[in-house]
Amino acid sequence: MSEREAATDEREELRRLTSAVGAWLEVARASGAVGVPRSAARRSAASGEPTAAPAVPSARAEVAAPAAALPQRAAAKPVTRVSPPPVSAAPGAAPPALSDRGQGLQALEGEVAACSGCGLASTRTQTVFARGSGSAGLCFVGEGPGADEDATGSPFVGAAGQLLDRMITGMGLDRDEVYVCNIVKCRPPGNRKPEPAEIAACRGFLERQLALVQPAVIVALGATAVHGLLGTGESITRIRGNWKLYQGRIAVMPTFHPAYLLRTPSAKRAVWDDLQAVLRQLGRPVPERKA
Ligand code: URA
Asked: Which atom of ligand 1 is nearest to the CA of 221?
C-alpha cells in the first residue's frame, strides 16, 4: 500500500470511528440508556432535540450496566418516539482498512453468486449484491431484488429504485456515496416477500456485508428490512422514525419502503422527517425539502 493510500485509510478509519461513536451515543441517549454532557444537552435544547440528564463520565461504562439499572431520561419533548434499543456494546471494533474492505466485499460477492442456500437460487437470473460505496457512512437496506434488479444484477434500479435515488439526492448526497443492499440477494418469484427461511439463509451474508461496510447509520426500508435487521415483528407504521440499534452498535432508522411511497405519496412527508434525522445523525447539512 502506498503512503497516500495508508493516509487515506487512516483518515477514513478516524472518520468512521468518530461517526460510530457519535451515532452510538446519540442512539443510546435518545433511548434513555445514557446521559450526555451538559454542553451536548445545551446543543440539543437549542436544536429542539430531546435533552437528557444527567451527564455521565463515560458512555461505555454506562452502557455496560443492565438495562433495568440505567438512568431514565428527563421529561422532554421527543422529536420522534423512541423505545430502548438493545444496547449491549460500545462502538464496534476498528473497521477493516479500505483496501481490505474492498477485497472482502468482492470475495463475499463471489460467495453470494455461488450460493444455493435456499430455493431462490433455482429461480433467480443472478444474485444482486449491492451498489454504491458507503463512503458517506450511510447504508440503505431494502427487502430483496425485483424483476429489474434480477435482470441487471444491481439493487434498486426499477421504479422504487429511481424514487430511492431521488430521496438520496434530496438529502444532498450522491447516489454513489451511499451503500445500497437488500435483506435477501435473490429475487423471490413474482416479487413476493421473502420467506423467513430465505431471510435466515441470507442473514450471514448480510451480517458480513455490514461488518465490512461499517456504516454509521443504516436506513431500513420497509417492514422486511426492519424485521430482517432487528428481528422485531413491530409494524413499520409504529416503528418508523424511531432510532434502533443493529447488533447493539449501529444506528438504524426504520422508514417506509420507496415502493410503498409510490402507492402512498402522502407518506413522503414522514419519510423526509426520518431522512432529516439521519442527516443530523451523520452531522450533514439538512437541505430544504422541494415541494
Ligand atoms: N425493492 C427492494 O427492496 N430492493 C430492490 O433492490 C428493489 C426493489
From this structure: 3
What confidence tens digit (pLDDT) does each residue in 202-261 have? 999 999 999 999 999 999 999 999 999 999 999 999 999 999 999 999 999 999 999 999
Distance CA 90, CA 59 (A): 8
Q: Residue 20: what pLDDT? A: 54
Beta pairing, strands 179-182 & 138-142: parallel
CA atoms 176, 182, 186, 189: torsion sign: negative
Percent of the chain at pLDDT exceeding 90 = 64
**Grid coordinates given for 11:** 483518515
Please tell me the residue having the least CA distance from ligand 1 atom 8. Answer: 156
State residue 289's pLDDT score. Answer: 73
Q: Which residue's entry shows cell 435477501?
A: 184
Q: Give me the count of residues in the chain.
A: 291
Of ligand 1's atoms, which has the minimum distance to the CA of residue 222? 3
Residues with CB under 6 A from ligand 1: 142-146, 149, 155-156, 158, 160-161, 182, 259
Distance 248 CA to ligand 1 centre (A): 25
Q: Which of 120, 129, 149, 167 to mutate to test the pocket of ligand 1 (most atoms within 8 A of CB)?
A: 149
pTM score of the predicted model = 0.74
Between 163 and 290, name the one with better pLDDT.
Answer: 163
Ordered by where they begin, the domains of the chain are 3-69 (no CATH), 98-282 (3.40.470.10)
The SS3 of residue 277 is helix
| CA dist 175 → 44, 58, 140 (Å) | 30, 37, 11
